[in-house]
Amino acid sequence: MKLPVYIGLLHVGERTLAQSFRQLADGHGDEPDVYHLCHTLAQQCDEHERRLAPIVQRYGEQPDDEPERFHTEAMTQSRSGPLGLLRDLQDMHTLVAFVDTTWTVVKQAALALRDEELLEVTKQCESQTKLQQDWLSTRLKQAAPQALLVAS
Q1: In angstroms, rounded to a whole number, what is the distance separating the alpha carbons of residues 137 and 125?
Q2: Three-class DSSP labels, 110-127
Q3: pTM for this structure?
Q4: Cβ contacts of residue 13 below 8 Å, gap of 6+?
Q5: Which of 84, 91, 103, 147 is deepest in the core (most CB within 10 A)?
């Protein structure tokens, strides 16, 4: 069974998202919505990781034997200025999309296993992750004109 591979991807992915949302918040603290909402979203990711703990206990985690093609590395520093914000939002959107599709895959496994606990965790966490992705998309659209047409 390869489910432990994807549980491990979720575990690391949620931790990475939490760290990255905090970096985005701190790096763009001059944007009040980014600062406050990113800290809230980081707390959601912390909660997702906490909710995964019993699942990790039950199924375990294991590294994949495939070479990594996509790395979920946390943001370690933020870029500056409007263009930097735009690029950082894009990076976050990519990370969130990776975690979102991983939740989808694990939810499908939960359905096949008829594991009600895992299914409930995946449904709640996946819906919050989709909201994170929606906010990032909206914020990208808001930041793009300023960064691309006005800022120099």
Answers
A1: 18
A2: HHHHCCHHHHHHHHHHHH
A3: 0.87
A4: 72, 95, 98, 99, 102
A5: 103
